[in-house]
Amino acid sequence: MRIIAGEARGRRLFAPEGDETRPTADRVREALFNIIRAEVPDAVVLDLFAGSGALALEALSRGARRAVLCDRSARAIQAICRNIGLMRAEDRTRVIAGDWQKAVSSDGGPFTLVFLDPPYRMTEVYAQAARRLYEAGRLAEDALIVMEHDAGRPIEGLAPPFILADERTYRDTAIALVRIGTQSEEE
């Protein structure tokens, strides 16, 4: 696993040991960042279920302003901190050791770019986390929420004010791009 582009291009990242995390494949990450490239410069990033931190760190490498990374796994937190150190990004990052609800409740934001990549079995978390972030005032008006999920299981329970702006599939992985919007924007 490595940083694909930007100031830290080519830098290798550490993944947490064990099978608690499922890092986003380099090819999927590269495709995703090609799609969202205009959203990244100066972004304020929240990476829930951060794992290795690869998504947030890729965004920082490509010009994001700062990032908050959250994971409840001690092994993931160790990998995240190690990867932040390798990128010398300590002054642009904050790490939250705890579940996603702790990150939603903490100070931060408003976030312009959110990565939401829970274990695929946690299907209810996508809509819950988006709703809680919105209700807590943690989302910028033009925020983009990137939801990585099992291609065989569509995102369920997403309701206004959220709209599915785009969705792409890469073998067994799907990427849903979700925005705050109105029904008339969907039509």
List keywords for this structure.
187 residues; 6 helices; disordered C terminus; Rossmann fold; 7-stranded mixed beta sheet
Annotated CATH homologous superfamily = Vaccinia Virus protein VP39
Distance between the termini: 39 Å
CATH class: Alpha Beta
Number of domains: 1
Number of strands: 7
Strand order of the largest sheet: 3-2-1-4-5-7-6
User: What is the correct CATH architecture?
Assistant: 3-Layer(aba) Sandwich
Number of helices: 6
The helix fraction, in percent, is: 25-40%
Class from helix and strand fractions: alpha/beta
Give, in order, the helices and strands: HEHEHEHEHEEEH
Give the overall shape: globular
Average predicted local confidence, pLDDT: 89
Could you say what the CATH topology is called?
Rossmann fold
What does this protein structure show overall?
The protein is an alpha/beta fold. It has one domain: 3-Layer(aba) Sandwich (Rossmann fold). It has six helices and seven strands; from the N terminus they run αβαβαβαβαβββα. A seven-stranded mixed β-sheet has the order 3-2-1-4-5-7-6, with helices on both faces. β6 (162-170) and β7 (173-180) form a beta hairpin. 41% of the residues are buried. The model is unreliable at 183-187 (pLDDT under 50).
Question: Concise description?
Answer:
The chain is of the alpha/beta class and 187 residues long.
